[in-house]
Amino acid sequence: MESSEELESSLLTQPWASVCFGESSFLAKVCFRDTGYILLISDLSSVWYESADTEAVGQRSKELNKRLTVHVSSFLNHLCSLMCPLLAGQPGAAAAFSCHRSASGLRLHVKSELSGLPFYWDFHCCPAPLDMVSRHLVRPLIQMNLVLQCQVQELISLLLQKDAEIEDYRDSGATLSRDRLRTEPFREEVFQQNFVAETLPRICSAGEGQAFASALQQLYTAVTQQELKQARKRHCSEDDVDTAPPAETTKHPHSPAASQEDETTSSSEKTSPASSPAQKSRLPAAKAKPKKAKGLFS
């Protein structure tokens, strides 16, 4: 059975999507499993979340849908069919959404039909903890910024190489068959100035609904998948260090002095050009501890 930590890890690789609930715009992501669901939602001023297991879903469904006696998995599948297409920008099953903010959190109300009967659901979202906000929003956005900056630098370098290639063709006497294909040499400083003066205001005026375009959603997923991969490597390295047998660890700098026999052996190893089989058998005992793997952005 999938634990709440595994459910949140699955949520991490889900991209944020722009969505409207009632008259309010949000960024949201959700993950449904047979064991429950977890929802993360933000209006860029606050971030809320709810994590519910099958017991909580069953209890709430009894309170809100007294006439429905279907299995909890049916409730979860129906909620998934309502929420996921909406976050994907696709028309889903007919449903009405409304939300209510309060000092204690955010309540998202859903009204639909299930098995021909009215179906109601309330997501009870409380403020998300800081580490959750950092993991799902702040850190991925910083990493995406670094990735995009590297991409921009590579594209600038490619443009300069193309300009040099075109100039070489011109010096060789080559001409364009159509004047409309002619371009000016790329000037990075001029490009940056024009971008800030013209393009940037247009992007900022688009509003919060354009926060995660499809290309950025793909980049977010790629970044978070890499984060999970690096986290698993670090976890495996820590487990290997913790479970390593004592004979495989290095000696403590304050361990007791070596015996005369050990000192004689050590001296002979330094002066001998090739180690004997007996000496080679002692080498694994001096192996250093495996180092922790480092992530791309750690």
From TrEMBL:
Compositionally biased region (Basic residues): 288-298
Cellular component GO terms, alphabetical: DNA ligase IV complex; DNA-dependent protein kinase-DNA ligase 4 complex; fibrillar center; nucleoplasm; site of double-strand break
Gene: NHEJ1
Matching Gene3D superfamilies: DNA double-strand break repair and VJ recombination XRCC4, N-terminal, Helix hairpin bin
Domain XLF-like N-terminal: 15-126
UniProt name for this protein: Non-homologous end-joining factor 1
A single GO BP: double-strand break repair via nonhomologous end joining
GO molecular function terms attached to this record: DNA end binding; DNA polymerase binding
Family according to the record: Belongs to the XRCC4-XLF family. XLF subfamily.
Keywords: DNA damage, DNA repair, DNA-binding, Nucleus
